[in-house]
Every structure is written in structure tokens, then in C-alpha cells.
Write the C-alpha cells for this entry.
Amino acid sequence: MPANSTWFSESMIAELRTQQEYADFISARYAGMVGDSTAAATYYRRAYVNSPDDSGLLERAAIATLASGDTEGAIKLAKSARPRAAEDSPSVQLALIIDDIENGRIPSAKARLQKPALGALNLDLAGFLSAWLTAVGDPARGEADVDALPGRRMIAGEQASLKALVLMQGGKDEEALQSFRIALHLPLATRDAVAALGASLQASRGDAQGARELIALGAIEGDPGPGSARVLADIDAGRKIARPKLSTREGAAMTIYIASGTGLVRSSPDLSAMRHAMVLHLDPELAPASLTLAEAFDRQDRSDEAIAALRAVPASSAWAADARMAEATILNRRERTGEALVAADQALALSRRREMMLQAGDLYRVNDRVALARKLYDEVIAADEAHGVVDWRVLFARSSVRSEAGDWQGAEADLEAAIAIEPDRPELLNFLGYAWVNRGQRVQEGLALIQRAADARPDQGYIIDSLGWAYFRLGQMDKAIDYLERAAELSPTDSEVIDHLGDAYWKAGRTNDARFEWTAALALKPDAAREATLRGKLEKGLPAAPGASLASRP
């Protein structure tokens, strides 16, 4: 072989490059299918480097990068892309628009927002953002641009919120407040941030009562969100509230946040992550966007990144308690119980809002911290009663912890009070009916309640299980087995349901079938008490007086 020869010909190198491009593309597609946006972004960017004129590949790389939460990486990709490919990539154009706004190139951002390459998916966002950027330099024209947006019922709340921002930017505070009120009368996913902004504007004018009314209008089931609660606390403390003033970047971030609260965006975790990562790139202190970004990451099974987004919310933020509670929820689902309880404690230390206490109470309840849960439910119920409110859901939750703590009389009273409010609620009927049957008290009445629940929810395994268990306690084994087998089909991973079926088989003389079911229930890793009971049954058979735990029927 001559000394200057090569191992590979040009055609062989080209073939290897093509194979690598294809491998990167397939790897990216797979990563995207399994929800790994970060890996998808890496592979798509690698594939695009080898095909720099492929606008479709560039768009996939930009989408994956933005969906991974890496707005800075998307901007770098957009800047390095060949102009012709970039022109045809909506996500690249979005990244460049964010970069323009960040660096004060407003005319360039506005020019890009007019390009058809942004696509139909970004049409509403483009209109909203263009109107805001126009209002920064020419408030009257920005207002006209908002009015010129196509009226759409599904985003009427978002359009009214945008108009409020633009009017406030132009110093038309009275008209802005009217737009805030209109927005809060409409469906609006971002209502707390909008209500807090409107209430701050109202309070800065010396109208505390008007601010309270706006906060009440923005509340959900009487509970103001964290941003509104902070404004309310400032009013109650007599603190002076400054008139809100948004910079170009802050207003753009708020505009994107509002425009991205629609059902279309929220229904797609990738799109939601893209939008809210852009929001935070422009305004890292817009904390509600951090919570929404974390929610999007969590739905992508990226819980570590979700937790990181939540921990980025500082303790001084009005949304800090909500961030800690959202973190507690994720940690609890990952069975990191100790960390979850610490996060819930931190949330309560930051806020005693009703919703915060209920979420913490529920977390304590499912983790057997019944005394802590009971205390929170008591506090919420007492506060509700002081305002003439009775909430069946809180009574239901408290009945569970009262029962588990051995206070059946109190639990029964809560259940009966809840049923008086919601007489046809299946879960209430089932809980009380099951309790009566399981305790051997008022069994026929309990059976009647469970039957009503089963008629309403025939596809709920735990309710059909209750019906079967009622017949078991009445000694009607044929009916018991029929219903318990149906319950096991509906809830094959519920150890209690499978345990009950085993008991019924044993009573019917089908001992081998009973041991099979008890073994299956044991394999489902039940709690310690049920595990001990199952092992005892497998060793000695069914005790003479079988029982079941009410506490396991929340």
C-alpha cells in the first residue's frame, strides 16, 4: 500500500457520516417518544450539525431544546443556524425573538413576530407579544393592536388580561382596572398573577376596598392565590403598595405567561415547558411560571428537574409555599416520604392559607400523621364555620383521620354531616356504609348505602368490594364471591380487595383458592398490619372473627 494512501475513500466516509446522521436522528426520535427532551435535544442538534440546510431537522432540534427548558441553548442553536433554514423554523424564530427582547432589539423582535414562519400554533402568542412590544413605545397603538386581535371566546380572559397590561403601560389606570375585572370574570388559568397585579394597581391608588374586591373576584372557591394573598397581607398590615411598573422584558414575560395559560398549551407538557422556560429566561422572578414549568417537567417524568425548578423559587416569593408543597407532592409520589414531610412543613411555615393547610393535611393523612392532619382539618373547619361555610370534602377528610385515630363517634358525625350536604355522593355513601358493615353495626343500613354507591359507580373496584364485603358479613357467600371477584377484576392491584376475595373463598370451603388470593395480596406489598394478617392466614387459615381496616378506605 502506498505511504500516502488512506484507509477510507471519500465515498466510504460519506456513507459513515450518513449512517451517523441516521443513528442520531433515530436516537433523537426515540428519546422524544419516551419523554427525554434533554437527550432528544442533544441528538437532534448533532444530527442537524451534519445537515445544516435541513430546516425540518433544525426545527426538531429547537423544539427539543426548548422543551428541555434550555432557552439559552435554543438561542445559541438559532444564532448558529444557516439563515435559510432558520427562516423556516418557527421555534428558531421564537428563540431569536426572546434574544431580541432580552437585548433590547425591539424592532427586530416585532419584525420577526410578523413572519408567517411562526406558524398557526404560535399565532395567538405572536399577536399578544407584538401588541405588548408596540405598547412599550406607543401605548395608543398598542391598545389598538389589542383591540384588533381576533375575538375568540376560548381566550377572552387572556385577551382582557393583555389589554389591562397595555392600558396600565399607557397610564390609563382606571380603564386598566376595568379590564382586570373583565378578565377575572372569565375563565383564566393565570388568574392569581393577574388578580395580584390588578389588586396592586388598585391599592396603589389608595383604594384598599377595591383591591379586596379584585382579590375576591380572582379567588378560587373563596381561596385567594398566593400572589393575591401577599397583596392582601400588605393591605391588612397598612403597608404602602407601589404602583406596578413592568419593564419591557418583564411585560413580555408576563404576556407570554398569560398567552400560555390556554388549554392548548397546558395540555402539552412539551409546549408548556417551552413557553414557560422562555418566560423565566426573560423574568426569572416570575415565580408562578416556575410552578407551571415544574408541572410540565413532572408530566414528562422529569421529576428531578421539576424539583429543581421549584427550589429555584426563593423563600421571599409569594409563591414559595406553593413551590414547597408542589415539591412535597412530587417527593411523596416518589416514596421519599421524609423529604416530602419536611417540604410540607416548610410550606406551612411560609403560609397558612386554607388551600395550603388542606394539601398538607392530605399529605399527612396518607402518611399516617393523623394527629397533624386532624389539627389542620380542625383549623380549616373552624375558619369555614366562622364564615358560614361547610365543606363536605373537609368533613370527609377529617372523618378518615378521626376513624384511624379510634374516634369512630366523631368520624361518623363528620360523615353524616357530609352526606347531609351531598346525599348522593358515592364515596361518602360507600365510606359510611362500609364502616357500619365492617363494624357489624347497622349492617342492613350500611348495605343499602353501599348499594346506592355501587349503582352510581359500578366500575369502581373499591365500591364493589365494599358491596361484596357487606354480603360476606351477612354470611351470603355466593353473592359475596360474585361481587368480590368483580372487584378483583376492577382493582387487581388492591391488596385489600384481593384479601377479601381470599376470605370469601375460605368461608365457602375453597381453601386452595383462598390461599392463592392471600399469596397474591401479599405479593402486592400491603402495609405492615395487613402483611402480618395475611401471613397469619396463610399459616393458620382464616380466624374465627375476620375484620378489615376502615382506615384503608379513604
About this structure: DSSP finds 32 helices and no strands in the chain. Residues 203 and 209 are 8 Å apart (CA to CA). The chain has three domains: 10-118, 119-267, 424-554.
